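Here is the promised in-class demo. Please do not try to memorize the tokens; focus on the logic of going from shape to residues.
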């Protein structure tokens, strides 16, 4: 199915199952993707306001309890954590999109990757299954154990590591021998900054490795975007699962996805069942690249440069 066909099915599902969107879309004729900018934006605070002791997720919940296989939480950096439920199909789509995003970095089946994310409670835990899906030999170390991480790098000689940009910088500043390790690729995610040229150069020098970044949005999906070896913006690995828009953060008006455009990233689920979101304001400030990429992946690329609400 095309994105437009998936979108129409998703909207029909929302109107059938989501009390939140039945109310929000009252008086609107959704139409297709060409008319999506005419629909209202969804704010995180709106979702939070519908939570009750009886329904801690919110009225955007669409799936029955026996359809839910996992419930993650967001970090709550701008307020109380939000709960993110997933059906089995939702979880599979997350893993597929995440695998595409991380595979863009150039890691190859049979290589070893050491991960520093925990399996829960945060959505980043769902990314761990993507490494096996790619065909990598996954060495999970988790958070808060630098000694174990360094020992794994020394003894198991992985080709890649995945960690936050700040932790990658912390390790490089305190361990000068990392530049001589087996690590060829440092995959960073979980925070903006990994694509900032000066900071990336510091990381690459400290690790003696190529640095690429990935990005997800807790309420929408894990590792939605991933950078290829060209290091010129992150490709949408979740194509077919998520629709991307750009808006003016001050007015909410839609902006064209053209080369050099800058604005706030807005995302819409196309194939989600547990708690799908329509035109969700991520508050991520991004820059867009639309020039052809030598890696042959198509579609716009983005670089996250900060927050529009910061």
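The designed amino acids, position by position:
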């Amino acid at each position: 199915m095309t994105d437009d066909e998936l979108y129409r099915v998703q909207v029909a599902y929302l109107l059938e199952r989501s009390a939140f969107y039945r109310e929000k879309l009252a008086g609107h004729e959704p139409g297709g993707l060409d008319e999506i900018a005419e629909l209202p934006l969804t704010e995180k605070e709106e979702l939070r306001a519908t939570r009750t002791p009886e329904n801690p997720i919110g009225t955007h919940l669409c799936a029955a309890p026996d359809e839910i296989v996992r419930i993650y939480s967001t970090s709550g950096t701008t307020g109380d954590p939000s709960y993110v439920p997933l059906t089995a199909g939702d979880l599979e789509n997350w893993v597929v999109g995440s695998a595409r995003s991380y595979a863009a970095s150039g890691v190859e089946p049979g290589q070893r990757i050491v991960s520093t994310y925990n399996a829960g409670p945060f959505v980043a835990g769902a990314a761990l299954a993507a490494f096996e899906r790619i065909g990598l030999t996954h060495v999970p170390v988790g958070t808060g154990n630098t000694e174990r991480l360094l020992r794994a790098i020394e003894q198991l000689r992985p080709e890649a590591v995945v960690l936050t940009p700040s932790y990658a910088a912390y390790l490089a500043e305190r361990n000068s021998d990392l530049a001589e390790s087996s690590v060829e690729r440092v995959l960073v995610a979980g925070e903006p900054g990994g694509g900032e040229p000066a900071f990336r150069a510091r990381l690459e020098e400290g690790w003696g490795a190529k640095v690429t970044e990935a990005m997800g949005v807790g309420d929408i999906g894990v590792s939605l975007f991933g950078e290829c070896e060209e290091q010129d913006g992150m490709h949408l690995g979740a194509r077919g699962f998520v629709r991307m828009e750009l808006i003016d953060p001050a007015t909410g008006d839609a902006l064209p996805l053209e080369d050099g455009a800058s604005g706030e990233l807005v995302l819409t689920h196309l194939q989600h069942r547990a708690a799908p979101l329509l035109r969700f304001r991520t508050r991520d400030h991004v820059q867009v690249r639309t020039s052809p990429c030598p890696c042959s992946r198509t579609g716009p690329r983005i670089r996250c440069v900060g927050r529009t609400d910061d």
